[in-house]
Amino acid sequence: HHLLVSGIVSAAGGRVSNCLAHPSVRTAQHDRVAKEFKDSLEWCLQHLNGEFRNVLKSAYDACAPTKYAKAPFETIFNEVAALLRHSAVRVYVMNGNSPIPSEYYEKGFNIICGGNTLGRGVTFPALHTIYYTRTSKKPQADTMWQHSRMFGYDRDPGMMSLFIDSNLYNLFANLNATNNSLIAQVEAGVQNIKVYYDQGISPTRAN
């Protein structure tokens, strides 16, 4: 998906397309996932005119950009092929052990793998592809809200893809519903405002 989006952006004269992976708080997982992305890019290059082309065509047919022009498939394929051949899609690890400056992802075609650092005051331009699989035994609402900042801005909704499991999806949906309830109470002038979370979700750390 990220390669398709990068091809569409590049063909339209865009300067940046980002993909984000948040698998875990453990740095070893960040390195592992980064290697898997690099291996996948190498597979795409090796199967450029075979299986990869068919996969890219299926993704192209399902994609409906609203901000970027959708060039003909052959144009997009050639853009993606050039990105792969020139190793223009870069993979970075971003965590406490490997901080990277914003200059790395403010332009170009990037895949960033990391942990909590991704959600602390960081936003990513043109973030269209997200893999969010980080789980917690005791989820905290404030942490989940903080992580929501990693979802970026200035995106094309027709090219957006979020890969997340059902439990995490439900968690974010419940937190969003709670937030909407809080806003509604304030707008209605309720004096004794109440906030309820699903069982197992804490508003903050115990301390």
Which segments are poorly predicted (pLDDT under 50) over 5 or more consecutive residues?
none
Count of runs of 4 or more consecutive helical residues: 6
> Mind telling me the C-alpha Rg?
19 Å
Order of helices and strands: HEHHHEEEHEH
Tell me, briefly, the overall form.
globular
Measured as a percent range, the helix fraction is 40-55%
Mean pLDDT: 88
What does the main sheet amount to?
5 strands, parallel
Across the major sheet, the strand order is: 2-3-1-4-5
Beta-strand residue percentage: 5-15%
**Helix- and strand-based class?**
alpha/beta
Q: What is the CA-CA span between the terminal residues?
A: 41 Å
**What's the total number of strands?**
5
Concise structural overview:
The protein is 41% helix and 14% strand. With 207 residues, the chain is α/β, with parallel strands linked by helices.
Q: In terms of topology, how is this protein built?
A:
Elements: H1 2-11, E1 16-22, H2 27-46, H3 51-62, H4 73-85, E2 89-94, E3 108-114, E4 127-132, H5 141-147, E5 161-164, H6 166-187
Parallel strand pairs: 1-3, 1-4, 2-3, 4-5
Question: What descriptors fit this protein?
Answer:
5 strands, single chain, alpha/beta, 207 residues
Describe the structure in your own words.
- The protein has 207 residues and is α/β, with parallel strands linked by helices.
- It contains 6 helices and 5 strands, in the order αβαααβββαβα.
- Strands 2-3-1-4-5 form a 5-stranded parallel beta sheet.
- Helix 5 links the parallel strand 4 and strand 5 (161-164).
- The longest helix has 22 residues, at 166-187.
- The termini are far apart.
- The relative contact order is 0.17.
- The model has no long low-confidence stretch (mean pLDDT 88).
